[in-house]
Amino acid sequence: MTPTEVEARIRDLIEPFNKKGIAIADATTFAGDLEFDSLTVMDFVAEIEDEFDVIISMNQQAEIENWGQLVAAVHKLQDS
Amino acid sequence: MATAMTETLTTAEPVDLLAKFDPIIQTREALLAAGVEDPFNLVMEQVLSPTRAICNGRDTILLGTYNYMGMTFDPDVIAAGKAAMEDFGAGTTGSRVLNGTFRDHRDVEAALREFYAMDHAMVFSTGYQANLGIISTLAGKGDYIILDIDSHASIYDGCAMGRAEVVPFKHNDVEALEKRLKRIPEGAGKLVVLEGVYSMMGDVAPLKEMVRVSKENGAMVLVDEAHSMGFIGEHGRGVAEEQGVLDQVDFIIGTFSKSVGTVGGFCVSNHPKFEVLRLVCRPYVFTAALPPAVMASSATSIRKLMHGGNKRAHLWENSRTLHKGLRDLGFKLGTETPQSAIIAVIMPDLERGAMMWEALLKEGLYVNLARPPATPAGMTLLRCSLCAEHTAEQVTTILGMFERAGKAIGII
Q1: Which DSSP string corresponds to B139-150?
Q2: Do you find a cis peptide bond into B373, omega within 30 degrees of 0?
């Protein structure tokens, strides 16, 4: 899957979590811009894990602050 | 040169490392400004029994301690501690691996082996340190820890200390656990960490299914039975015993600061190499061993808990009566049925939770006010933990207090 395809799929997944309909770009942050709390993060990460059949450990999650980093990380994970 | 250096030192803007806690300071000040008694600054001036104390000057029923089996004032437990203090002194002044292992440290480990019918037992200075030490030592860099998202802080801290990859799954969701186990790279070390009773909501884990899927996927299993020891299961060994999977659990973690009524933590196991942990587990090695009085009291208490069937039955009665009574009054509870000695009453928000807590305190009842980050889903809870020494009359009195306070605050 190309980064563009990965991004398109995650865009579908984030829709129900993006309650305020904030425009998402590479620099959009989850904690700041999207106001995700820890429970939302858990549910959203679980959706991604199931969709791509990967594990995103809490250690990896700690390194992911914005949309661009998430897409890159998932692309790398599903590729390996 | 020297002048320039001095100038740099005197003009550097200091960064206040406590500034990051300003939001917490503000929340607390707002709460106290509303006139509420500080929920996190209660003093027990006198403790009258396992269920009664003078709190902030008032005679109060205690419904927020972890004294499930009421062992704190057991005459045999107190006598054993007094004798050990007379004979062995007030403290150990040393690590368990150097000069801190006395007769009673060995004896309390023997008592634990008898209680659980297991081969090995290792005692830590607190329950927190037992989780910190065992988890960080078992799972290191490159290993995977798969844990329930609602796990206790000591479990998360143990994970962080060991630097394993941490994979959380949705609370009590067997399928979510199984999916994650199957995705872990082949050949990696896997430790599944579960709790018997989750202390915030008082709900029990489906250990039977969880232990099964963990074993099917080649993981070792650790279960924290802090809130179930002494009370749940035929011999009081906990939820794993109750659900018939104790023999498949690799490590049980527990504490003395709940049903046992003292302080300390432990791990019991049948693993043949378990004893090596005494040499490699930093939170075990680099801290002082518990005082001999605590060890002697604990050993006596553990052996008495082995024969605590009647007390367990009465504690279940109390739990059922309080759960049903609170439900009938219209309170929202953490569990549909009484599953443990903990009953969580869900508050609409922190403000009304704090008002309700204070109203109960003025009625003469102490419960725990629990709030995020300790609670799941950002909830504010009034957490009630019952004791086998609460009389049926006290439980009725407690329900009356909840009714009056709940109506006064407008929660029911």
Answers
A1: S-TT-EEEEETT
A2: yes
Which residue shows structure tokens 């005679």? B59
What was the pLDDT predicted at B32? Answer: 86
Q: How much is the ipTM here? A: 0.93
Query: Which spans in chain A are helix H?
Result: 3-14, 38-52, 58-63, 67-79
CA A45 centroid distance within chain: 7
Q: End-to-end CA distance of chain B, in Å?
A: 73
pLDDT digits (tens, 9 = 90+) for B150-160: 999 999 999 99
Residue B186 to residue B174: CA distance in whole angstroms: 21
Q: CA of A59 to nearest chain B CA: how many angstroms apart?
A: 6
Q: Which of B156, B173, B183 to mutate to test the interface with A (most CBs of A within 10 A)?
A: B183
Nearest residue to A61 (alpha-carbon basis) of A72, A70, A71: A70
- Give residues 180 to 239 of B whose Cβ lies within 8 Å of A: 180, 183-184
Section B374-385 average pLDDT: 91
A-chain residues within 8 Å CB-CB of B165?
55, 57-60
CB B118 within 8 A of CB B268: yes
Q: Return mean pLDDT, chain B.
A: 95
Catalytic sites of B, residue numbers: 199, 227, 258
Residue B207: both structure tokens together: 């250990």
Q: What distance in Å separates residue B330's CA from the closest CA in chain A? A: 27
Taking CB atoms and an 8 Å cutoff, what residues of chain A touch B167? Answer: 55, 57-58
CA distance A40 to chain B (A): 9
What CA–CA distance (Å, rounded) separates A45 from A61?
Answer: 9
B120-128: average pLDDT: 98
pTM for the complete prediction? 0.94
Q: State whether the Cα torsion A51-A54-A55-A59 is positive or negative.
A: negative
Q: Which of B163, B259, B177, B169 is nearest to B215 (CA)?
A: B177
- For Cα atoms B146, A47, B215, give the angle at the middle one, nearest 5 degrees: 30
Rounded Cα distance, B221 and B23, in Å: 38
**Residue B267 · residue B227 · CB < 8 Å:** no
